[in-house]
Design a protein that fits this description.
137 residues, 9-stranded mixed sheet, mainly beta, glutathione-dependent formaldehyde- activating enzyme (gfa), 38% strand, single chain
Length: 137
């Protein structure tokens, strides 16, 4: 599975499977991505190969999340949880055309559902949870 930022300065390849996919509706993700929600796929750090890493910059949006983006085009690339050295969360919007995350779609979930914009419902049937994991009605 391959992807890149918009300008192509940062490219990556994932050689393993995506452990899970989450669509985050928190206000930080919405504002940083300029979108209704941001989709992430968890991958093992050892399975991620990055080219152009010198163009990556880091922004610590909270105590729980550090984000990496292209310094040239601003494209959001990865998110990481400080203290978790094993997992990187790919920004799935950065996947190259035709690429798909290798995961079980039944395990997809919408996180921070309580922070979503109220005028749009994705209607995909994925589980909706409060925060990172408590199921929401």
């Amino acid at each position: 599975m391959r992807g890149s930022c918009q300008c192509g300065a940062v490219r990556y390849e994932v050689t393993g499977k995506v452990s899970h996919v989450s669509h985050c509706h928190c206000s930080m993700c919405r504002k940083l991505h300029g979108a209704l929600f941001a989709s992430f796929g968890g991958v093992a750090r050892d399975d991620l190969k990055v080219e152009g890493g010198d163009s990556l910059r880091e922004y610590r949006s909270s105590d729980a999340i550090s984000r990496r983006f292209c310094a040239i085009c601003g494209g959001q690339m990865f998110a990481e949880s400080p203290g978790d050295d094993d997992t990187v969360f790919l920004c799935l919007g950065s996947l190259d055309q035709g690429e798909r995350p290798d995961h079980d779609p039944a395990g997809e979930r919408h996180i921070f559902w309580e922070s979503r914009v109220t005028w749009h419902d994705p209607g995909d049937g994925a589980v909706r949870v409060e925060g990172y994991g408590e199921t929401s009605g």
